[in-house]
């Protein structure tokens, strides 16, 4: 079975200015290319949405920012709503869903690189999944303590040295099927 493409938290609320400077201007094009490839092949696509429990968050279910960005909507096999950082701790038992379909590999993409994407990748690896992290199909924002570029590099080191493979969109699109 093909790897499942996990599209983490690509929501309208991440367009709000309060997040600060963002990295990776190629994020949308890279993720769109992966989505088009997965959908064209009929490979499993899992959309993940963060339903914040903080009523003031742009990602709270009562706010317009909770909606997925329109360009990621489309055919998908599963929607997982979560209130924590890992897609494996949502309203659907993602691990059981994957295993029930014989899916052993997950490809992690989305927003934010160093937050929910990294946590999902680590959790997936700890559950025994083969994790591929499409670094250029994620993005993050500057934090007061560290800029987005440094956060991206730290995530790549964390995932690549312990939890999975860090790859590019081009590498994923050109790998044998």
Summarize, please:
This protein is of the alpha/beta class and 177 residues long. It has 5 helices and 6 strands, in the order E-H-E-E-H-E-H-E-H-E-H. Strand 4, helix 3 (113-126) and strand 5 (130-139) form a beta-alpha-beta unit.
Description:
The structure is a single chain. The protein has a six-stranded parallel sheet, with helices on both faces. It is 33% helix and 20% strand. The mean pLDDT is 97. Helix 3 packs parallel to helix 4. It is globular. The relative contact order is 0.21.
Summary tags:
six-stranded parallel beta sheet, 33% helix, 5 helices, alpha/beta, 20% strand, Rossmann fold
Distance between the termini: 10 Å
Kindly provide the radius of gyration, computed on alpha-carbon positions and rounded to a whole number of angstroms.
15 Å
Overall pLDDT, averaged?
97
CATH topology: Rossmann fold
Number of helices in the DSSP assignment = 5
- Domain count: the total is 1
At CATH level 2, the architecture is: 3-Layer(aba) Sandwich
**SSE-based structural type:** alpha/beta
Helix content range: 25-40%
The CATH fourth-level homologous superfamily: Isochorismatase-like
Q: How is the secondary structure organized here?
A:
Blueprint: E1 4-8, H1 27-41, E2 45-50, E3 78-82, H2 94-100, E4 105-111, H3 113-126, E5 130-139, H4 148-163, E6 165-167, H5 169-174
Parallel strand pairs: 1-2, 1-4, 2-3, 4-5, 5-6
Helix pairs in contact: 3-4
């Amino acid at each position: 079975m093909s790897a499942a493409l996990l599209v983490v938290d690509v929501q309208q609320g991440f367009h709000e200015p309060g997040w600060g400077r963002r990295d990776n201007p190629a994020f949308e094009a890279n993720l769109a290319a992966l989505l088009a490839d997965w959908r064209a092949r009929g490979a499993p696509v899992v959309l993940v949405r963060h339903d914040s429990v903080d009523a003031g968050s742009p990602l709270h279910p009562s706010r317009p920012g909770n909606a997925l960005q329109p360009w990621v909507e489309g055919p998908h096999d599963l929607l997982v709503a979560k209130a924590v950082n890992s897609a494996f701790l949502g309203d659907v038992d993602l691990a059981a869903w994957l295993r029930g379909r014989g899916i052993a590999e997950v490809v992690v993409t989305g927003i934010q690189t160093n937050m929910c994407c990294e946590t999902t990748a680590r959790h997936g690896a700890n559950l025994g999944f083969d994790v591929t992290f499409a670094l250029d199909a994620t993005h993050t924002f500057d934090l007061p303590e560290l800029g987005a570029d440094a956060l991206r590099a730290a995530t790549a080191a964390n995932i690549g040295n312990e939890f999975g493979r860090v790859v590019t969109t081009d590498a994923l699109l050109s790998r044998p099927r």
